[in-house]
Amino acid sequence: MPQASLFRQITDFANRADPYPLYEELRKTPVLHEEDGPYVISSYYDIEALLHDPRISSDATNVAAAGDDELSGPEATGLPPSFIRLDPPEHDRLRRIANSSFGPPHRPRRIENMRGELGEIVTGLIDGFGDARQIDLVDEFAYPFPVTVICRLLGVPREDEPRFRAWVDPIVAGLDPDTRTSAESERTAQEARLQLGMYLNGLVEQRAREPRDDMLSDLVNSRGPDGAMTTMEVLSTSVLLLIAGHETTVNLITNGMLTLLRHPEVLARLRNDPGLSVRIVEELLRYEPPVQIVPQRTCIADIELRGVTIPKGSRIWLMLAAGNRDPERFKDPERFDPDREDIQHLGFGSGIHSCFGAPLARLEAQIALSELARRLENPRLVEDPPPYRQNAVLRGPRHLNIAFDGLR
Amino acid sequence: MAADYMDWLRREGRIVIVGASLAGLRAAETLRAEGFAGELTLIGDEPYEPYDRPPLSKSVLLGMASPHRTELPHRLDIDAKWRLGVPATGLDLTAKRVKLADGDEVQYDRLLIATGVRARPWPKEDEARLTGVCVLRTRDDAADLYQRLKAGPRRVFVIGAGFAGSEIASACREMGIPVTVAERAGAPLVGALGGVIGAVAADLQTEHGVDLRTHVTVTSLEGDSVGRVRAVHLSDESVVEADVVVVSLGSQRNTEWLTGSGLGAGPRGIACDAGCRAFDFRGIVTDDVFVAGDVARSPHALFGYQFLSLEHWGNAVAQAETAAHNMICRGADRRPHLWMPAFWSSMFGVNIKSVGVPPMGDQLMITQGSPAERRFVGVYGYQGRVIAAVSFDNTRWLEFYARQIERGAPFPVEYPTVDRRPENRQPVAADFPDPSLPTHGPTVTLSGYSPADQQLVFHPARH
Ligand SMILES: Cc1cc2nc3c(=O)[nH]c(=O)nc-3n(C[C@H](O)[C@H](O)[C@H](O)COP(=O)(O)OP(=O)(O)OC[C@H]3O[C@@H](n4cnc5c(N)ncnc54)[C@H](O)[C@@H]3O)c2cc1C
Questions:
Q1: Which residue's C-alpha comes closest to atom 2 of ligand 1?
Q2: What pLDDT is attached to residue A70?
Q3: Which of A179, B266, B357, B383 is the most buried (most CB within 10 A)?
Q4: Kindly report the CA angle at B91 between B86 and B93, in degrees rounded to 5?
């Protein structure tokens, strides 16, 4: 039987639990192009360079034009693309408006001020394990925690979670390259996005009348130097923030706990020194990044890379997780080592699209992991590897069963 | 033999660093980090531990940071002898001794000179002594200027619209203080970025309420009966009343103490090779005297082997690290200092950053964004290649352009980019003033022979 192409193997669910040997193979051909597939880029320096390359577009329409599916311009979706799928200047404008209610310079302490609240949510969830001696970390902790946080931050009622989850799941599935090939799942995703937008519209209208101290109110009432977002822009931005605000953090926390359980000496250190969580989370973002691939890029000019000319109009996949373990960049890259001298990574991407929520994700993961380490007595993995989620882009365990002797 | 000496030097040699600021401290840290176990002495004429200067013209003036609180963080314990508050006054190259103002002498096996630059004072001494006439280079200068701004002056007058002068004007406006800026050239920042970008900076200033006067020079400062400055006279015969005058006319290199030493030191700095080894006055490279930071002048392969003086924070750090490394290793292990010049500034709410050497550029092309929106990237071309780039509120793209400079990519830029507007397709003259006119601000000084039109392939070091 002929060996499936490297590219197919990576998207193949069978390899989800440990794609790293495939990534290593991939780096031997740092600019890989198979048949009519995308150009797959896997070395740290190349990815870093392309993330800062103004000849690379994230615009949904360019990307769709380069793809082989009859995707989905903005009209087809009903909701305009969010800033993650736009190029400057629109990208910059929308991201700046969104940021003015999230981070510096306008709200420099918004995230840091949530520290106490995040701690309380974590404590509540861990207390909720009660007398159990085994939990599924995903369902009982790693999912509800960031969902609760993003709901509070945006101002979305937490009890609506079952409703919006029904829309979030197909949207996230639509990002998976395996299901993506089917026009059917694409349509489902776009439909779900519209539904989620309509749901949020109810909240947005209400915040326009009675603003509160939450991001939905800020987005709908923003009147900075960049002007205001249109209602549709508010909706696609909040859809983006709601989804990106938790789907990735679940994986960061779950991958994190999995990695710590596989490295008990680090877990033990963390138990005694919560401050170590800062380095641990950075190293995790390198070692097991929650977003493994950036598949939504096209080049708008011919680009020469390592002697290969990537023709204008080609689709490009940036393999963040492969770059993160590139021996050209990192000493001993396959080792999980929070004591590394310069922990750097592509875990949050880089360039103008670098993760908007990074400060929140970092803080959430730091608090979550240090509290789990502190409170779970003698925690251990029930199965290794755990079952994974389908998605190759947003990669992480679907369940993580952990046994322990009690709570501290 | 040589190897033995190097082992001995690393173990018990004496290294002296003159200039206890950014470059001095970073060099000291690098020496220790790379295993130098001998005696380390830092000599500084300021009474303070090394501190950071960029905040002095930014957050410090706004009261957001105390001038006494900008100490540079120590990255490791350097276990050094500190001789602070005492200037070095001379150097005996043969006897390997540094002379100090207090009469002491310090013996070295290796010497690093990192004495930086100082503010160019107002040339008429009696006028410069008027109360309210300031410069801004040191922590004391910043503390003094901050007090004066806080007192609510009726008007501040800034002489010179380089980066520092423009940043000071920006701080004044942010505090609601009326400010007049006088500039000999046609616009702010022209020396560093040329007339086209200068015009953008000029609009930025006037929009923020700066009373900007260009194509004028200050002819005299007028004091009142008790010796306070009260008015500024300009070459166009106008008179502006002001109670604070900030002289921001660029800098002078701190090399006088080396007069007669035989080192290749002068008003343009201390020339050194790409490995940071100082030249003597005959152009012969020394083996035990090294230079780093603002005071250094070294050839750069990417820019036609021009001798560049870079008054850039990042250069001081990188050059100090290279110098320190080279001071304690064998010839074959030495590294060249081939740092990509990069400079940042912030004023009137805009973040300005440049890479490469803009003043070498003869043409300029806006490749992304739009100057009208104060958000753009401009690329400088020199004889058909990309030589520099500048961004206003668009920092994240600069890495790309830095790589284009390293590769000697062709100019004008032909390919499309995201955020390229139709109105910006044409290269125009970058419009730098005649290089014989004085320019100022922490920027780049081009000096030395430039073999024109080098075609070269540059392989930057990756760490
Ligand atoms: C107000 C201000 C704002 C700035 N903003 C920016 C910015 O935004 N971006 C940027 O890239 N750069 C900026 N710079 C430039 C940056 O600070 C310098 O490039 C950097 O400080 C250079 O470091 P250095 O160690 O070479 O020299 P310095 O920091 O000048 O240090 C030299 C030291 O040597 C001492 N010295 C001099 N002569 C003697 C002697 N004979 N004996 C003993 N000691 C002596 C000096 O007093 C001084 O302490 C700014 C500078 C200033 C003043």
A1: B54
A2: 43
A3: B357
A4: 150
Atom of ligand 1 nearest to the CA of B57: 1
Q: Which residue of B has its CA nearest to A303?
A: B415
Tell me the chain A residues in contact with residue B369 when contact means C-beta distances shorter than 8 Å.
Answer: 88-89
Which of A45, A56, A351 shows the shortest C-beta gap to B396? A351
Q: What would the two tokens of residue B450 be?
A: 């430039």
pLDDT of residue B436: 66
Q: How many residues does chain B have?
A: 463
Quick one: average pLDDT of A236-265?
96
Residue B134 to residue B122: CA distance in whole angstroms: 9
Hey, whose CA ends up nearest to atom 18 of ligand 1? B313
DSSP bridge pairs for B90: B99
* Interface contact B417-A54, CB threshold 8 A: yes
Coil, strand or helix: which one is A37?
A: coil
Count CA atoms within 13 Å of residue A226 on its CB side.
18
Element of type H or E holding A267: helix A264-272
Please give, rounded to a whole number of angstroms, the shortest distance from the CA of B374 to a CA of chain A.
12
Count residue pairs from A and B with Cβ separation < 8 A.
52
In this predicted structure, what is the pLDDT of residue B452?
Answer: 38
What type of residue is B50? P
**Count of CB atoms situated within 10 Å of the CB of A337:** 18
Report yes or no: B129 at the A interface, CB cutoff 8 Å: no
Question: Is B368's CB within 8 Å of A88's CB?
Answer: yes
Transcribe A77-106 into DSSP letters. Answer: HSSPPPGGG--TTHHHHHHHHHHTTTSTTT
Residue A181 pLDDT grade (very low, low, confident, very high; cuts 50, 70, 90): low
**Length in residues, chain A:** 408
Q: In chain A, what residues touch B368 (CB-CB under 8 Å)?
A: 54, 88
CA-to-CA distance for A405 and B295, rounded, in angstroms? Answer: 64
Instruction: Mention every residue, 6+ apart, whose C-beta is less than 8 A from residue B395.
Output: B344, B351, B353
Residue B75 is predicted with a pLDDT of 82
Place of tokens 């789990």: A372
Point out the residues of chain B with pLDDT beneath 50. 441-442, 449-457, 463
pLDDT tens digits, A346-385: 999 999 999 999 999 999 999 999 999 999 999 999 999 9
Q: How far is A299 from chain B (nearest CA, A)?
A: 9
Chain B CA closest to residue A45: B462
Q: Which is more confident, A401 or A74? A: A401
Q: What angle do CA B89, B95, B96 make, to 5 degrees?
A: 65
As for the ipTM of the complex, it is: 0.89
pTM given for the model: 0.91
